[in-house]
Design brief:
Blueprint (H helix, E strand, L loop, with lengths): L1 H14 L11 H4 L12 H11 L2 H7 L7 E2 L10 E4 L30 H7 L2 H17 L4 E2 L23 H16 L4 E2 L1 E4 L11 E4 L2 H8 L1 H8 L5 E4 L3 E2 L2 E2 L4 H11 L5 E3 L8 H6 L28 H8 L5 H17 L14 H14 L1 E5 L13 E5 L24 H9 L4 E5 L9 E2 L2 E2 L10 H12 L4 E7 L22 H11 L3 E6 L14 E4 L7 H10 L20 H4 L6 E8 L3 E9 L8 H7 L16 E8 L3 E2 L4 E9 L5 E11 L10 E10 L4 E8 L6 E3 L4 E3 L3 E8 L7 E7 L1
Parallel strand pairs: 2-3, 3-4, 5-7, 6-8, 6-20, 7-10, 12-13, 12-16, 16-17, 17-18, 22-30
Antiparallel strand pairs: 1-2, 8-9, 11-18, 14-15, 19-20, 21-23, 23-26, 24-25, 24-29, 27-28, 29-30
The chain binds beta-D-glucopyranose.
């Protein structure tokens, strides 16, 4: 791509009668370029210069797709095409121009980084930077201007099919991780596209769900992660969600897009439709949509191919302008935003950091995975395994032999390599412990997505009874049994477009684990999922690890944790409910909503609309557990280590604050016998408020690595926003003077330190 752009630039410059600069030219030669092509000029100057030269047709051309993932540049002016790609966990392989099938490139196998739930479970903002940086370098190498991620929607119900692509039930944790992911990625000159704005919290009826949510809940729970990614992270792109809010589609929503995102937060980037999320020209024009992708329609009948001129922001928009229905300034503003992101991500301006499948990227993926894995239970310190003692290991379960990077929707990848759990475990124990395998259950055996085929065949015709008895018989002779199970990327598991339908583990895994536990007390359950699942057997097994979707290095990471090469330090980014009814949305019958009227989709098609009222309001996740005094199986923020930590005390920067700023210095000591990392979590409790507030809310965290016996003072600073609620009377954040208590510890249910202070 670089070469063709340079050639084109040279041609343009020649046609303008200027002296062309050869690749990467000097200051004096580049200054002869027209302003819009001159990388030494400010982006805004380049944008205005380009805009002034463009015809209406050229402006229209750059604001809608020309293929599945690209939009046109301005060939006459030498402005290159704009290429996007999924996202968010690796750079998706190229598909055909107007098909979802593979383009068949030989240079698009990538590294799969761990899913964003795993990243969030590390509670390590520096790791989020590394994630963005590594992914940005891969995107850069592949010539992509924009990565379609990160996903920062709130994990509202464990049924959410895309929760594995999102980060947390808590807006502060999701927001902080997103900010650094955005910065890390954009430092490579590759734009993010933070998605899906907003209120995309479940997948069933995703095109037709109209979310009804009160203003306070919207502001306190569902918007902050986006707000932080935009205001703190400086995101260059945001993608609208499919669903509706106030009966208007979110790809062009007057309140969300125009008023909040663009006006209030000052977002100056490009607002992109989700693929096929646009249904009407007038609404898209007026509702703040800047770029339309994936409509796959001629505006009348769904399903036309290569119908890009018939997109809602294409010919129909141009005709409306010619007829005087729409003014040119609105088009200019859309084109301006598109040009801005084009110049911000100008390939000729990018630092030369593009690289793919490098050793650094594999080690980044491994590090992110290692810090994200959560040790949920470890009775009698059964873990880590000590390979030097020898013995027999039995590995059971389909997920031990299943590639998880294929499937799940748009985040599906074509990896250069994926280490399966069984491969990682075998490699780590080779020559020390014997490793046998039993399938235990058969789940999803498809192993193919959009033409990318998984490396192994999973078909097994044996009935469940045979699989269970084989596993139980082998288990009775083993020293340890490692069950690698959980969910997968098939429909109704962890998969785009579909929600889960059952909180229980699928394919009879609970029965299998109960049977194994009766045969051998030393069961270690490695759960792979992006969601919590019901664990009726948890009292009968000594150890459990939450291993997420770990990408290319999955097997190595799991083996590292099992053998203690890595001391686990991840903390749950969501509540692990004991029962589905312990989640507010389900307890209150507020999911998945009720049919109410219709909504117009592309092609004038009236589809039944579903109204989903978020009746639990601000009480999402641990906020609801606190309110109802519910004890979950594992609390938000929970995660064990092979060492132990003590919280030795907290000091405040002052007893009171006028502007809300406060610094807490927290003493932490590694009191165990091995090195490890701890996450200091700080929650704010408002001692007295004029409105109903959650008992506590996460407002600060910091990760600290300590050698055995070592102590450290960890500083956490908060600001006024940490003390505030959204005041619906004034439509503004409000921090009420009074007393607040900071609750500090290593999990939302273990907060031994308390510090009280006043807001004057
Ligand atoms: C998904 C987006 C994705 C896009 C392009 C849509 O169906 O919702 O998250 O980026 O497809 O693949």
């Amino acid at each position: 791509m670089n070469k063709s752009i340079l050639a084109l630039t040279a041609a343009i410059v020649a046609s303008l009668g200027l002296q062309a600069c050869s690749g990467g030219g000097t200051k004096s030669s580049t200054s002869k370029l027209p302003v819009y092509l001159d990388p030494d000029k400010k982006v805004e100057a380049r944008v205005e210069d380009a805009l002034a030269r463009m015809t209406t047709a050229e402006k229209i051309d750059i604001i809608h797709a020309q293929s599945k993932f690209s939009s046109a540049g301005v060939p006459r002016l030498g402005i290159p095409e704009f290429w996007t790609d999924d996202g968010p966990m690796g750079v998706r392989p190229d598909v055909l121009w107007d098909e979802w099938e593979q383009a068949g490139q030989t240079n698009d196998s990538c590294i799969a980084f761990p899913a964003l739930t795993a990243l969030a479970a590390s509670w390590d903002v520096d790791l989020a930077t590394l994630y963005g940086k590594s992914l940005g370098e891969e995107a850069n190498y592949r010539g992509k201007n924009m990565i379609l991620g990160p996903g920062v929607n709130i994990i509202r119900t464990p049924f959410g099919g895309r929760n594995f692509e999102y980060m947390s039930e808590d807006p502060f944790l999701a927001g902080k991780m997103a900010v650094n992911y955005v910065r890390g990625l954009q430092n490579n000159g590759v734009a993010v596209c933070v998605k899906h704005f907003a209120l995309n919290n479940n997948e069933d009826n995703r095109f037709t769900t109209n979310v009804i949510v009160d203003d306070r809940t919207l502001r306190e729970i569902y918007l902050p992660a986006f707000e932080m990614a935009v205001k703190e992270g400086g995101a260059w792109g945001v993608m609208g969600a499919y669903n509706l809010y106030k009966n208007q589609h979110n790809c062009y929503n007057e309140v969300l897009t125009n008023q909040i995102l663009k006006k209030e937060w000052g977002f100056d980037g490009v607002y992109i439709s989700d693929w096929g999320g646009t249904h009407d020209t007038e609404q898209a024009v007026k509702g703040g949509l800047d770029m339309e992708f994936g409509s796959w329609t001629n505006g009348l009948n769904n399903g036309s191919q290569n119908a890009y001129d018939s997109y809602f922001l294409a010919d129909a928009y141009e005709k409306g302008i010619e007829e005087g229905k729409y003014d040119i300034s609105t088009l200019d503003e859309k084109a301006r935003r598109v040009l801005r992101v084009m110049f911000r991500t100008d390939v000729r301006n990018r630092p030369n950091t593009g690289s793919m499948n490098s050793e650094e990227h594999y080690s980044a993926a491994r590090k992110i995975g290692s810090e994200g894995v959560v040790l949920l239970k470890n009775e009698g310190n059964i873990l880590p395994l000590d390979p030097s003692k020898g013995g027999k290991i039995l590995v059971v379960g389909e997920n031990a032999i299943k590639m998880m990077t294929v499937g799940g929707g748009s985040s599906s990848l074509k990896v250069q390599n994926e280490v399966l759990p069984i491969e990682g475990i075998k490699a780590a124990l080779e020559g020390k412990m014997s490793v046998d395998y039993a399938r235990g259950y058969v789940g999803d055996t498809t192993g193919e997505y959009n033409g990318v085929v998984a490396k192994q065949k999973l078909y097994d015709p044996r009935p469940a009874s045979t699989l269970i008895s084989e596993a139980v018989s082998k288990a009775s002779k083993a020293d340890y049994v490692i069950v690698v199970g959980g969910l997968n990327k098939a429909p109704h598991q962890d998969d785009e477009s579909y929600d889960r339908t059952d909180y229980a583990l699928p394919y009879g895994q609970s029965e299998l684990i109960e049977a194994l536990a009766a045969a051998n007390p030393k069961i270690i359950f490695v759960n792979i999922s992006g969601n919590p699942v019901e664990l009726p057997f948890i009292g009968k097994i000594p150890a459990m690890i939450q291993a997420w979707y770990l990408g290319s290095e999955a097997g190595n990471v799991i083996a590292d944790v099992l053998t203690g090469k890595v001391n686990p330090s991840g903390k749950l980014p969501f509540t692990w409910y004991a029962r589905l009814e312990d989640c507010g949305a389900h307890a209150l019958g507020a999911y998945p909503g009720k049919a109410n009227g219709t909504t117009s989709l592309a092609g004038g098609y009236e589809a039944p609309k579903v109204d989903e009222e978020y009746k639990e309001g601000i009480y999402v996740g641990y906020r609801y557990e606190d309110k109802e005094s519910i004890t979950p199986t594992f609390a938000f923020g929970h995660g064990l280590s092979y060492t132990t930590f003590e919280f030795t005390g907290v000091k405040l920067s002052s007893k009171s604050t006028k502007d809300g700023a406060m610094t807490f210095t927290v003493g932490v000591k590694n009191t165990g016998s091995c090195d490890g990392a701890e996450v200091v979590q700080l929650y704010i409790h408002d001692n007295e408020a004029s409105v109903d507030r959650p008992y506590k809310e996460l407002k600060g965290f910091a990760r600290v690595f300590l050698k055995a016996g070592q102590s450290a003072n960890v500083k956490i600073t908060i600001d006024k926003r940490a003390l505030s609620f959204w005041d619906t009377k004034t439509s503004a954040w409000k921090a009420e003077p009074g007393t607040f208590t900071a609750l500090i510890g290593d999990s939302s249910d273990n907060l031994p330190l308390k510090a009280t202070f006043d807001l004057k």
